[in-house]
Amino acid sequence: MSTATTGQDLCVCFPAAGGGGTTLTLLRDAAARHGLTALALPNAASVADLDSGRWQERTVEEIRRAADHRGARRIVLAGHSMGGLSAVRLQPALDMRGVRPTGVLVVNTPCPDSSGRIPTMSQLTDPEIARVLAHDGFPAELLDDEDMLAEIAHGLRGDAAVADRLAERLAPGDRLTDLHALCGRDDRFIPTERCAAWARRVSGEFRLTVVPGGHSLDPAQSAALGRALAGVLAITPAEEEVA
């Protein structure tokens, strides 16, 4: 029996490759504005972590414990880029466990094509990764340092390999009940049409919000992000309301 008395719904946030960043902060802030408890969780640490099922098992259990502790009646899974793939991957597992009614919000997350492929950094060279990051406003002094760039690029390629496998494991026939997607129209790495393609995998309500900006959100998009989160909450019934 849960001993929670707060009754706060839960927003579980997953980061883009590299972890953290402004978008994750904005997701957590939006959750707080809507009275949700924000819980930031990592993506799978490696392809082996994903393939073994360990990441999914421990993440679902951590979400279940957090929801029980806070007396949550519903859960929002929110993710940026590869974090959105994590959210999409976990929703069926949470539904099967009957943890709580669960909604999904993805930010600049590409829908896999019919072959399970997504735009990826896993095979990009250091200079190619630097160009992608530079367009998204990454500090030039870090990109100009070859050793620092090599370290950053190595980590991103590792995360991208996990994202590739997440995409491969989302079968074309898999269907989401509902999904809200937000994307930056100036994102050169994840084109808007790759976010819009999620509509083909949703059997219920799909909403796409396109905002100015690139791959990472900035505070100017916080209002749009808040509206997208409100939209998810509007179609995700609280536990007592489920027929």
Describe the structure.
It contains nine helices and six strands. It has 243 residues and is of the alpha/beta class. It has a domain at 10-112 and 171-235: Alpha/Beta hydrolase fold, catalytic domain (Rossmann fold, 3-Layer(aba) Sandwich). Strands 2-1-3-4-5-6 form a six-stranded parallel sheet, with helices on both faces. The longest helix has 23 residues, at 146-168. The model is unreliable at 1-5 (pLDDT under 50).
Characteristic key phrases:
AB_hydrolase_fold, TEII, six-stranded parallel beta sheet, Thioesterase, 243 residues, disordered N terminus, Rossmann fold
How many E-type strands?
Answer: 6
| Integer average pLDDT | 91
- Give the second-level CATH assignment, the architecture of the domain at 10-112 and 171-235: 3-Layer(aba) Sandwich
Q: Level of helix content?
A: 40-55%
**Residues in β-strands, percent:** 5-15%
Give me the CATH fold name of the domain at 10-112 and 171-235: Rossmann fold
Cα shape: globular
Number of helices: 9
Task: Write the CATH homologous superfamily of the domain at 10-112 and 171-235.
Answer: Alpha/Beta hydrolase fold, catalytic domain
**Model regions low in confidence, pLDDT < 50 over at least 5 residues:** 1-5
CATH first level of the domain at 10-112 and 171-235: Alpha Beta
- Biggest sheet, strands in spatial order? 2-1-3-4-5-6
Strand count, sense and closure of the main sheet? Answer: 6 strands, parallel
What series of H and E elements makes up the topology?
EHEHHEHEHHHEHEH
